[in-house]
Amino acid sequence: MDPLTVPPEPERRRLVTPMTFGLPDRPLPELGYQAGQNAWMMKVDVKKGSRGARPCPEEGKPAQLCTDHPIAWAKQPSLQATLPALDGVDMEAGTSVLLCESTNDGTLAKCLTTPEATPAARKAMLALAPLFVAPQRAQDGVVVAGGQVAIPFDWSKITPLARKLKRP
């Protein structure tokens, strides 16, 4: 922690520690993949000079700025629960991002995928969206509801792992 960026009064913090359990006849999942890992909430149209502001132009808003806020899911699927949706994904490299609006109850709505995802990858990403529930606040305290949530899918980790775990 950086004492210059942390308020002087104590705060409650959540620490998410993934635990991996295995079965004797199945390989253990690689630790590099957990559904929704490294997701963040993107606050759009922030003021110039805002801490962490970066360009995120959209059509009609070429100078738009955004800030990113890491999130820890209120609910996320287990690795096993993601396998049916990942069946048939044909991407083995690259990263695609699922962008969704977080509603007041944390469900994800109006989801889109980044354009490099193949149709099979898009279908899988959109099928997994209902399995996530966003927290009320990002890890830095920013309200998540109404913001865009971004979930990266690193296909170089996901696809080989899903295939390995689905083998009889």
What does this molecule look like?
It is a single chain. About 20% of the residues lie in helices and about 20% in strands. Strand 4 (about 95-100) and strand 5 (about 110-115) form a beta hairpin. It has about 170 residues and is an alpha+beta fold. A six-stranded antiparallel beta sheet has the order 2-3-1-6-4-5. It is globular, with a radius of gyration of 17 Å. It has helices at about 80-85, 120-130, 155-165, and strands at about 40-45, 55, 65-70, 95-100, 110-115, 150-155. It has a domain at about 75-165: 2-Layer Sandwich (Fusion Protein Consisting Of Minor Coat Protein, Glycine Rich Linker, Tola, And A His Tag, Chain: A, Domain 2). The mean pLDDT is about 80. The chain contains three helices and six strands; from the N terminus they run E-E-E-H-E-E-H-E-H.
Keywords:
single chain, 168 residues, alpha+beta, Fusion Protein Consisting Of Minor Coat Protein, Glycine Rich Linker, Tola, And A His Tag, Chain: A, Domain 2, 6-stranded antiparallel beta sheet, 3 helices, 6 strands, 18% helix, 20% strand
| 3D shape | globular
Number of strands: 6
Task: Give the strand order, joined by hyphens, for the main sheet.
Answer: 2-3-1-6-4-5
> Beta-strand percentage?
15-25%
Q: Look at the helices and sheets and give the structural class.
A: alpha+beta
How far apart the termini lie comes to 45 Å
Please name the CATH architecture of one domain: 2-Layer Sandwich
Mean pLDDT: 82
The rounded Rg comes to 17 Å
Major sheet attributes: 6 strands, antiparallel
> How helix-rich are the residues, as a percent range?
10-25%
User: What fold name goes in the CATH topology slot of one domain?
Assistant: Fusion Protein Consisting Of Minor Coat Protein, Glycine Rich Linker, Tola, And A His Tag, Chain: A, Domain 2
CATH class of one domain: Alpha Beta
Number of helices: 3
Given as residue ranges, the uncertain stretches (5+ residues, pLDDT < 50) are: none
Could you spell the SSE succession in H and E letters? EEEHEEHEH
